[in-house]
Design brief:
The protein is an alpha/beta fold. The protein has one domain: Rossmann fold. About 40% of the residues lie in helices and about 20% in strands. A five-stranded parallel sheet has the order 2-3-1-4-5, with helices on both faces. The chain is globular. The two termini are about 30 Å apart.
């Protein structure tokens, strides 16, 4: 199966989770798979009551490790779950995310941000991800 891999990037709080939720809610279920490849878990917490102060107290952010980045790279590179793979790498332009996008063979990127200087930073970051094309900025 040919899989088109699309990542949505942008600063924390820019609406990435909402955009992905909207896409997933409007695409036929068998046409996509949403893969979260980031240690902070923000999207999961947001969807499961993050605004509740009791839930926020329990939250523990994760950190990148070589093992989890290696696993995410392998998973993204070999994922055959659906024709469209939506990849969520969180809101950090990091060496780890560059590895996930480049070595994972992500085809396209969407930048979601509110700030002009942030847009330029994400464009530079994505330009360093070999083989990746920016869909729209």
């Amino acid at each position: 199966m040919d899989v088109t891999k699309i990542v949505v990037v942008g600063d924390p709080g820019s609406g990435k989770t909402q955009l992905l939720r909207g896409l997933c809610g409007n695409l036929p279920q068998e046409s996509y798979f949403l893969f979260r490849a980031h240690p902070d878990g923000d999207a999961w917490w947001y969807q499961n009551g993050y605004e509740d102060p009791k839930v926020r107290e329990l939250r523990t952010k994760g950190h990148f490790t070589k093992d989890n980045v290696d696993w995410w790279v392998h998973a993204v590179a070999n994922m055959q779950m659906a024709p469209i793979l939506l990849v969520d790498v969180g809101g950090v332009a990091s060496d780890e995310n560059r590895r996930i996008l480049t070595e994972g063979g992500v085809d396209y990127a969407i930048i979601l941000t509110r700030y002009e200087d942030s847009l330029a930073r994400w464009q530079v970051f994505l330009g360093e991800c070999v083989g990746l094309k920016l869909l729209r900025s």
